[in-house]
Amino acid sequence: MPTQPHTIITGIKEVDPQHALDVPTLEAYLKGQLEDVTGSLTVKQFRGGQSNPTYHLSDGHKQWVLRRKPPGVLVASAHAVDREYRIISALNRIDFPVPRARLLCEDPDVIGTMFFIMDHVEGRVLTDQLLPDETPAQRASIYESQIQTLAALHQVDYAAIGLEDYGKPGNYFARQIHRWGRQYTDSPAERIPAMERLMEWLPDNIPTEESTSITHGDYGLNNQILHPTEPHVAAVLDWELSTIGHPFGDLTYHLAQRESPNGVFANQSDEDLRALGIPTTDEYVARYCELTGRDGIGDLDFYLAFQLFRSAGIMHGIAGRVMTGTAAGEGAEEIGKLARPLAEQSLVHARKLGA
User: Fold this and answer.
1) Among 18-32, 140-154, 198-212, 329-343, where is mean pLDDT lowest?
2) Which of 107, 176, 320, 347 would disulfide-bridge 194, Cβ 3.0–4.6 Å?
3) What was the pLDDT predicted at 6?
4) Of the residues 91, 119, 147, which one is the last residue of a structural domain?
């Protein structure tokens, strides 16, 4: 998400009491399913993440990652770990950087909720998009790798890897506006006037351009594992929001992170970014279009308004989960408070188009 704390979040910790699971039962289950689980299982929890609790597993020889639905009463459309497992498994069939998917368990009797297992990928998870510990050349390489990876995803033949029914082609923005508007409405968190106005304006002002691709839905630096020492993307994580949708959804989500109020880009001019080795928004769009064979992107203000509305909906959902006690990540309360400024920033873009 665009407003995660700007830190390295590769660390693990003891499992939070509200996310505890039955380790002996899990160990017995995995030993019956995976031949390479041989020793005694130890379970820790990854820091970061606000939706699905994520655990580090080790038997002293190998490491895995477990993603599960959180316990408690949940919004019906959220926490789709089975969809995550399906798309990671499909992308394993081609040369795309994701962890190897190992198994999906839909039986709640094992640890209480549905979960899946994937291989652990060594590397760095960074959230400060200015990459302060890198050189300008390294920053340029990391950003180039990010945009190349996104462009490659959008050019995957999704039907050829078994994802022809993974989403509904067409009307992507209409469906997304409805989905996040409904999540906003269903959340018990406070009402936000800017969200109410956007829910009225956005559906009537969707651009007519239609393209279809796999969309990640949460394509940010914090959902990428960088190679341990080299400046490139080793794996893309957190596919919970993925679908068959419009590629501009991912691209402008990635760009909308620069629009986040109080974010690290807030006081950076284009000249500042070039000095850091980071492409400007215009340069980023141009490079994406070059990689995907497009001749520019019109209606950018609409897409940015939509993405900030969507991010506000996600943050509003986190605020609601704080209220119900089901938020999975550290700092969830502060992150949830960002829903209002994100919605107000979205409305700034919408007003450029007459909202």
Assistant:
1) 329-343
2) 347
3) 36
4) 119
CB within 8 A of 229, min separation 6: which ones? none
Q: Which residues of 163-197 are buried (b: 16+ CB within 10 A; e: fewer)?
A: beebbeeeebbeebbeebbebbeebebeebebbeb
Q: Which of 308, 303, 302 is nearest to 192 (CA)?
A: 308
Final residue in a domain of this structure, among 64, 91, 119: 119
Residue 72 half-sphere exposure toward CB, CA atoms < 13 A: 20
Confidence of residue 153 (pLDDT cuts 50, 70, 90): very high
pTM for this predicted structure = 0.85
- Establish if 1 belongs to a structural domain: no
Amino acid at 270: D
Collapse the DSSP code of 116 into the 3-class scheme (helix H, G, I; strand E, B; otherwise coil) and give the result.
Answer: strand
Helix (H, G, I), strand (E, B) or coil at 66: strand
Give dist(CA 340, CA 332) in Å, integer. Answer: 15
pLDDT above 70: residue 237: yes
Same domain for 18 and 165?
Answer: no
Predicted confidence (pLDDT) at residue 124 exceeds the cutoff of 70? yes
Query: What percentage of the chain exceeds 70 in pLDDT?
Result: 93
Residue type, 208: T
